[in-house]
Design a protein that fits this description.
about 350 residues; alpha+beta; Catalase HpII,  Chain A, domain 1; about 20% strand; globular; catalase activity; heme binding
């Protein structure tokens, strides 16, 4: 296996117009959120509105070789974790007809190390989604993509059901020839059980002395679960029912950057070839059986902010899409919590989340 390439601040090549692009993206997301809420008032999330599970567990870091033993993973230890499973859209959609990507956001507590400049420290968030790559290469193309998606908010549910079904069918055809579409996946994600999904950082991050992408892969016991999309909240009920009986587990794995040309920093749409660098296990993410849809639990987890900006410098998000996330999650997340009367500071421990 090739040696991992070293991290350097010079790896990033920001677009000089990024601040303006970020403001335009934020404006489109706010407008789409207002349409989706249809006058219900401010204070809601602008994406990943539907909570599928809110749960507490632990991240057990493995005994790792030097190139993987970096940042929060520098030594074997166990972190308390709070996590949220979610559905991508910025509105509550009927799961019987619309299938979109899912997200797994995890917050580690008791993390040591130098935080990013605007992060108070003590926590490390990893925000993961089901697509291994982002559906736009850079902030400029993301602005065009998000404008199209947010414009669909006023359409009736039955229209979205039909579009989603057509997109799923088209993506199945593309998958048979090894060319699934990230754009079609946004509205036509396969009907997979949320606990059987793999989740990805999509874009790169610093990995201490190196650079990596991160993935979370389901344990064998939950890798091929089935569910029926026969009710509006089928995804949440499928996830919470399984967690209540068996808990949940994923293996966290890092894909180290080993080839500058094949593994670009500034193009988040590029799939890094696993034949050049495979995902290598670094930790086990484990959740015991629990009620992951208890109203008090969901309320407390909804009050949190999961953001790439909640990070050690050793895991700094990299590339244009990650810089956009740093700006947007911070700005829009603070707005959401202020409008809802929620604290904007990071919790010191998972004890703030109801058991």
């Amino acid at each position: 296996m090739s040696r991992p390439l070293p991290y350097s601040p010079d790896l990033e090549r920001p677009d000089p117009n990024e601040p303006e692009l970020f403001e335009r993206i934020a404006a489109v997301m706010r407008a789409g959120g207002e349409l989706a809420r249809d006058g219900e008032g401010p204070g809601g999330r602008l994406s990943h509105v539907q909570t599928l599970a809110a749960f507490k567990g632990e991240l057990v870091v493995h005994d790792l070789p030097p190139e993987l033993a970096q940042g929060a993973f520098a030594r074997p230890r166990t972190y308390p974790v709070v996590a949220r499973l979610s559905h991508l859209p910025g509105e509550d959609l009927d799961n019987r007809g619309v299938s979109s990507p899912r997200g797994l956001s995890i917050k580690l507590f008791g993390v040591d190390g130098r935080p990013l400049a605007d992060h108070q420290g003590g926590t490390q968030d990893f925000v993961l989604e089901t697509a291994p790559v982002f559906n736009a290469r850079c902030p400029r193309t993301f602005l065009a993509a998000i404008s199209t998606v947010e414009a669909s908010a006023p359409f009736p549910q039955f229209v979205k059901h039909g579009v989603s079904a057509a997109a799923r069918a088209a993506n199945r055809v593309l998958e048979t020839v090894g060319a699934p579409s990230a754009n079609l996946d946004v509205i036509g994600h396969p009907a997979i059980h949320p606990l059987s999904e793999s989740y990805y950082s999509q874009a790169p991050m610093r990995w201490g002395d190196y650079v990596a992408k991160l993935g979370a892969f389901p344990a064998p016991a939950q890798s091929d679960l089935r569910f029926r999309a026969d009710e509006p909240d089928a995804l949440a009920h499928a996830a919470s029912d399984r967690i209540a009986r068996h808990g949940a587990e994923w293996t966290l794995a890092a894909q180290l950057r080993t080839d500058a040309d094949a593994m670009p920093i500034e193009n988040a749409r590029t799939l890094w070839p696993e034949e050049l660098s495979s995902y290598r296990p670094v930790a086990t993410l484990r959740f015991p059986p629990q009620n992951a849809l208890a109203p008090s639990r969901v309320r407390d987890v909804e009050a949190l902010s999961f953001s790439p900006a909640h990070s050690l410098e050793a895991h700094r998000p990299l590339g244009g899409i990650m810089r956009a996330r740093l700006a947007l999650y911070t700005q829009l997340g603070c707005e959401r919590r202020r409008q809802a009367g929620l604290p904007t500071t990071e919790p010191a421990s998972p004890d703030v989340i109801a058991d």
